[in-house]
Every structure is written in C-alpha cells, then in structure tokens.
Amino acid sequence: MCQCFNIDVKHPRIFTGPEDALFGFSVLQHDAGGEKSMLVGAPWDGPPNNRKGDVYRCTVGAERNSSCSKVNLGETALQNVSKNLRNSHLGMTLTPDYPDGFLACAPLWSQECGTSMFSTGICASVSDDLEPRETIAPTAQRCSTYMDIVIVLDGSNSIYPWYEVQNFLSNILSKFHISPDQMQVGILQYGEVAVHEWSLKDYQTTQQVVEASMNISRQEGRETRTAYAIHMACTEAFSAERGAREGATKVMIVVTDGESHDGEELPDALEECETRNITRYAIAVLGHYIRRQQDPETFINEIKYIASDPDDKYFFNVTDEAALNDIVDALGDRIFTLEGTLGYNQSSFHMEMSQIGFSTHTLDDGILFGMVGAYDWDGGVLKEGINGRIMPPREAFESEFPLELKNHAAYLGYTVSSVVVGDWKRLYVAGAPRFKHKGKVILFELGDDGEPNEIHVSLQIGSYYGSEVCGLDIDQDGITDVLLVAAPMFLGSGNKEAGRVYIYTLSGSEEKSQDARFGYALAATPDLNHDGFTDLLVGAPLEDEHRGAIYVYHGDGIYITHNYKQRIAGYSISPSLKYFGRSVSAQLDLDGDDLIDLAVGAQGSAVLLSSRSIVQINVSLKFQPHSINVIQKTCQKGGRDSACLNATVCFTAVSRSPGSHNLLVSAMLDDRKLSARALFDDSSHRQTQLLVQVHTGKTLCYNLPFHVYDTADYIRPISFSLRFKINNTESGPVLDEGWPTNIKKTIPFFKDCGEDDVCTTDLVLQIVLQLHQMYQLSGLNYFFSSFLYRHKPYVIRSPRRRLAVEVQLQNRLENAYNTSLMLHYSRNLHFSSLSIRVSHVLEVILLSSSLSTNSHSCNVSYPVFRSMSKVSYCWKNLLPLI
C-alpha cells in the first residue's frame, strides 16, 4: 500500500519502453528552454549481438499519454570516436552537466586492441537541445598495437622460391590487427631498386593486406641494396604523406637472403632510423648460402648490425625461405611486446578496464569519475576539471587498499560524490563495495597532500556497502550535513536481501534499515515539503516481490528524519511495474506547477510523479458576545427564551501555489457533555458542517450562530471545537502535516462578579419555628432539624399538632449561582405545603421531595441569586403521624 503525504500517486505518468533494452535503468529530469521532459536510459538497446544502448526522451506535455522517442545518441555522439560501438551500453549513467546539458555515459565502451577488448568507457556531453558537444574518454589509451609497420622485403634473384615468401607475408600479416586505431602496414620491395608495393595508408583491414600480399611479384635484380632500401623506408615509407601517424610505434621488418652491395652506407641509413625512433627486426634467410655451401657468418653479422639491440630479441635467422613460416608466431609475439606496450600475456591492468562513467558526480569545476575497473578492479577515481585532469595513482590509496589485497577487486569508484565540511573544504567520496567482500567508503582530497580517510567498513559480507553514497545539505547553507551510505544487499531476517542505509554526520554514524535492497538508488531533492530543507529519496527495487518501492525522507535542521514521510509502492502506481525504484531523479519541475517532480525508473518503464502543493490554513475564532448572559435572554429559539451568540471563523491559506482550496469544516458545541447546553441555529444540533473555499493569500470569514437554553450547569464554560480538512484528497493540494487542523475555544457564562470574575458570596439563613397548637402526646417524642440549624428536641402533643418553619435567605455580597436549600425532618412528620413570604421578584422552586428520606430541596432564584437579594418562605403543616 501507499502511505502518502504530498506526492501524488493517483495521477502518475508512466512511460514505457522496450523492457529487454532495460528501459528505465537510469532517469534524469530535463528542461530545454521551458520544454520539460524526462530522459530515460536504455543501455541494452539494440539487437542481441550489438547492445549499443541509447537514451529516450519522454515529453511531459499536456497530454498525459505522451510517448518517448529515441535520441540516437549512440549514432551521433560516439560515431566519430570509434567505429567499434558494439555493446557499449550507452545510457547506463545519466548525470547533469555543469553549467547546462547532461552527460550520457557508456562505461562498457571498449577499445579493440589485438585480440583483446579493453573496456575503458566513454561519456558524451550533450547540450540541452540534445546535440552532442564533446566526448570524454580520459582513460582511453592508444592500443599497444598502435603501430606503423613497414616490411622491407628483399626481392633479388637469390630469393627462391617466391611463393614461400608470399606465404610468410600472408601468415605474418594475418596476425596483425589492421585498422586506423591499431596497426598499419606498408611493404617496400628492393633489389637493385626499391619500390613501394603499398603505403601505410592504403589498406584499412587485415583481409585487404593479406589479399594484396598474394599479388606481390618478385622485383628481381642482381644486386641487394639493403642500405638504400632501409634509408628509403625510414625517410619515405614512414612519412606522413604515406600515412604514418604521430604517436604510433614505428617498426621495420627487414627480410633478406644476402649481404648488401651497399654495406658502406648502412651506418648512415641506420642512424637515420635511430633518429626517427624506428625499431628494427632483421631476418636472415640462409637458403642461398646453404644451397651454395658458403659460410654465412659475415652475412649474419651484417643482419645483426641492422637489427635493434639486443640481438636475441630483434634478430632472427632461418635455414631457407620455407622456414620463414616457422618464426611467424615468435616474430608476432615479440612485436606485440615492445617496450612501453602491454602484451597479451601480461596479467596486470591499469586503465585498460577502468570503465569510466560507471559513476559520475558533477562539480562546479568539473566532473568526478569513478573508475571501477582500474588497477585490476581495485578501482580508482579521476577528476576532469577546468584546470586539467587529476588522476591519483594506485599508490595514493595504498593505506586504505593495501597492495597485498590487489586481487580482491574492491571496485573503488563504484559510486562517487563530494561533501563540503565546516571550513568550506571539499572532500571527495568514493565507495568500494567489494573491499574484503564487505564494502568500504573513503573521504579524500585531490591534491598533493590529500590523504584518504576511511569512514566505515561494513560488518556483513556481501552487503555491497558503499554501492551508493549521497551527501545532503539539509539546511541549504552550503555545508554538507549528513552523508548516506547504502548497503542494498544487507541480509535481514530470513536471509532476505533487505538492504540498509547508514546515515553519517561526518563525526559519527547512525543507521536506518528498511527492506528489499533499500538504498539501491539515492537522490537528494530540493525541499519537497516546503520547509526550506533538502529531502531524500531512497529506492528499494526488490520490495513487494520485486515490484519495488521508493521512500521519501524529509530534512530536519541539519539531519534527516528517522522515519520516512511517504512510501510509494510500485504496485500502487501500476500492477505491471517491476523493479520500481532502481533509479531516481528529483531536481526539476517538469509539469509547470513550480513544484519538484519525481522521476523513477523501473524495468521497461519510467514513472513521473508530481508533487502536490502544501497548504497551511490559519484559523481564527471569535465570539459575540464574549460570554453567555443567562440573566438577560436575547432571543427565542424553539419557543423558549435563549441566549443567542455568534461565532466568527476566519480562514487564511498560505501556499507556494496560487489558487483556491476547498475545505470541509466540522464544528461542535460542548463536545464533552452527554447532553448539549448549546445548539447551532441552522441545524438545532450541537454539530454542523460547511464547505469553505479559501484562496491563497486571502482571508475568508464565516458566521456560525448558536444559542443556549436554560441549563443546570452555568459554572463550566461551553466548548466550541472546529476541525477542517481538504475536501478532495485524490488530487490538488494537501494540508501541511505539521500544521494544526483544529481549533478549540470556550465561551464562559456571564457572572457579573467584578473585575476578577470570581463570585464571593455571603449567604445568611434565618429560621423561625411556629408551633400553633402546643400539646404533648403521651409516650411520643418528636425530633425536627434543618440542614443549617440544630435545635433542641420539640415534643408535639395534641392539640398542638401543626408546625411551620419560617425561612429567610439573604445574599449580602456578589452573585450566587445554583443556590438551593434542603429541608430534612423526622419520619413521624408529614409535609403539607410551601408558601412565599417576601420574594422581591425572586423564585423559590420546589425541585424534589422524598418520602423515604423525609427531605425537600428548593432552588432559590435559579440560576442566579443576585447580590443583596432576599427571599422568605415558609414550610407549613408539618404534621405528626398518628
């Protein structure tokens, strides 16, 4: 179910895309000159054999069923970088760029280097109008196979048979990885003259050069001018006009079967090669010498002289032309392991698998990248800033990631962020969720003296602690208040992947745990509840059997509230949603109501949730008159004299959003009394309801008249309670949950008791007994007394049978309320009547009599026995029972 506050879950906008493309893997809100949209990453977009990935743009317009269109960034942004766009998975990361636009990253973008694929990663900076600006691939390196190779081939008459040479060329060229980004090959054949069979720039694929090699005819000639050919190769074949590339490793392979006829020119030719930094492999083919049974020592020494040092690496000799094929593999391996390049047989990686763009964090002066695959997957970080590139070496984090653990694959840079501490110093944050299989987060500076500081290491293996981090400036003063670290695979009860998020104040920690990979996605959002503090979104995509949920936490001062304010379950949005909460973004107003909206990714879907305006209702309540005067009745209600009053209720709406707000208002009188002492005029009941429409920034008042009948309780005041709520709870604004939605006041009774409103009375009671026929009845004794007086016993005898009690009550000070008298007499007397002597317009009412208790009760001038009033009356005919 959905526990709600001000995120509208009744009117979501669900954008769907290809599920197998992982549409919804990442989301980012986007505003291009007032045109609002949601960008959705689909990193597996494309056919099964080429998941290039892409980004979709979902327009947030007036039509709720707006569709999404593919941006085709894979074709436009990365096309000029490399022809190899296979399985690059663009759209895994979407991040706002500074000062505008956004970054779309393809961390699995790979460089083909020989038979290896190195996933260095790449990001595209895209403008707000979705035009690619530049590509960012700071860890991309030239392949070790970025070589310009020229084969200087002896084609004189002594080379025989020629087809064996062609086979050698075909075999060695087939091992080369020919492409503009890797190897280029040119061939210069010589004898008496030298000829460029083809130049470096002529062929772009291995297949092309292999086919071309089979069509090379022998040049022939009686002389072998090796020095001339080497010099020509150095000066012409490696020239830019023939396709030589700046920065490429220059390699020359000299294949010859005899001593040169211009050997005296070799020193100059080789010096020219050294000047141009050309590495030389030299192959001596001994077939001509063996066939003629000549000593090849001089020839071999010349070829060793031609080869670069040391000889055991750069010099080869073979018995004949056919044996050239026996050195193909060895020659290829030596070429691929030239000094300064990374060979196939080496196991240590630096930046080759860095996967830049797996995580990104936008800074004011650049971008912080996580390099999760750098340094044998120990990971690393890199800052690409306006002042240049900063990439700490592996040794910079050695204190936190010892070299003896280098094979543990800590994945530093799985997520990156930054915080600003009290002295306005910026610290960078990086998570390493696989450190010792538990996870770790470090804070560090990027400078000469910056040392990383460990925050915490998870105590549970496999929890993936540090896979997401998020710093929050809750009070928005520029200083980070808390840092949140997620451990989405933390195992809870029953070994379920419950997930946990840890909250740090940077000087201590406190943890908050929830369910189902809680913390898989984290996002700060600017003030959802309009209290001036930054709030937090937490994704839990495995909740509710993988249907997912998100949680909204509010900022409070410089901290985050412990309890979530709203939980939004994926199935409450749509029963078909899965992995709802795998990505979140909440920075912009996309629907034009000046309120922050939420973008949430799911599997194959992206959901836009609108915020609802928050309203504070200020209520005032006044009464006219200010008290209830039961002495002077002002109106008649239901045929009875009553005290009539009016309650004036005023409402003022305060909200960021203009407009009207419909309230349902309930009012109640005397809510704690079993029977009401006051009733509303319109309903003649103690309760009434009304619909009120208030406008933001305006005050609207309503009158609620009511009346009070005579009542036995004039002491305790009458309460007036008022409650209100938004009439339409499905849409529109919501009431501020921290703002009061009720008001209660009391209306006192008018006492006329001076400035202190405390009635001080002085009631004086006088009693006189009148015995009309005084006689004694033998054997009978009778006893009489009142509740205020004690008398001696009187004996009533026949014929004195009648007894009267004269009573006078006087109030000498302030008003007395609910004044009453009680007469008690013995059981052998019988009450006859009550008569008033002096009343002064005051009433004496016989309220009750009880034969069983022999008593009578009278109210005196009910309800008020006024100051200086006097009343006299007589209880008559108290007769003895015979």
TrEMBL record:
It holds the Pfam family FG-GAP. InterPro entries: FG-GAP (IPR013517), Int_alpha_beta-p (IPR013519), Integrin_alpha (IPR000413), Integrin_alpha_Ig-like_1 (IPR013649), Integrin_alpha_Ig-like_2 (IPR048285), Integrin_alpha_N (IPR028994), Integrin_dom_sf (IPR032695), VWF_A (IPR002035). The keyword Cytoplasm does not apply. GO terms for molecular function: integrin binding; metal ion binding. Signal peptide: none annotated. Keywords: Calcium, Cell adhesion, Disulfide bond, Glycoprotein, Integrin, Membrane, Metal-binding, Receptor, Repeat, Signal, Transmembrane, Transmembrane helix. Its main location: membrane. The keyword Repeat applies. One of its GO terms (biological process) is integrin-mediated signaling pathway. This is VWFA domain-containing protein. It comes from Gouania willdenowi.
